[in-house]
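[User]
Um, tokens okay?
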Amino acid sequence: MQLLQATFGSRQMIAHTPSLDPIQTLRFTRRRESWVAASSGRFYKITRKSDDPLRDLVDPACIGTSLREYTTLCFLHGLDEGVCHPESIDRACIVYPLLSGPDLRTLLISRASAAQRDASLQSAMHLLARLHRGDATGHPFKDYRRHGFLAPPPAVLERMACRPRTLVVTGFEARNFRFDRRRNAWLFFDPHHVWSGHPEEDFARFVISLLMIRGRRSGLRLWTGFDRFRLREAYESLAPAQLDDTLLNYFLCEELAMRKFHAIKLARRMPGVARAFVTSYTRIYYHRLQRALAAQRF
């Protein structure tokens, strides 16, 4: 059994003594919020809470989080096959098919042709539009006045009041797409939460995720090799309604404020000298991102 470290990021590997439980024979790699492994054409993911994947495997909180992800993915796959369908769930471990191609981040920052990049982004926008046609009834209703990082101004609240709500998939970001060569298609995974909200939130989050696709650790250079108007055109060609400029601009700022808040909070948890350096670097990065965002408004 071989673990593809280039796919899973961290080089740290956790090995366990073989047993009758097949999950215990896997070699897991630690990520920030999960443990992952690959074997025999399948991808295994355990929600992470501790430094031991087998402890997290049976932890009730981890089981609850994994079950929510599994249920959400099954629901979204029922709306569109562009969402990766998990094969099964065993305690806190979700079993996925092992997708054979690159992730969207790799393709976008590689030397792929402009046509390849445009086609992949168009595919993502078409999927988002189809998901927004799903029935949002029964999903948690997001109150943007209470649950946000930027208080909506009166003009935004007025637009929200007269706009229809759709499903909102909080994990809909460029990094959560992987190509499956067997199906010759891009598949979306890791949906996080689903609620009833405004479609502009998902669209704005995707735009921000494109600007940040290189990652902060790769330097201050942002990725701007996309046309926001072409993204919008692709989305609106299949969407249940046209996007609203006022709400788009608000959610672009809201998404950036949320990411900056969490990034600085994480930086401040670092020890000693590293904390000062990383906090300063994070502020500079988001200042540059704020300037770049000014050119992406609608």
The chain has ten helices and ten strands. Residues 1-18 have pLDDT under 50 and may be disordered. The first helix runs from residue 5 to 8.
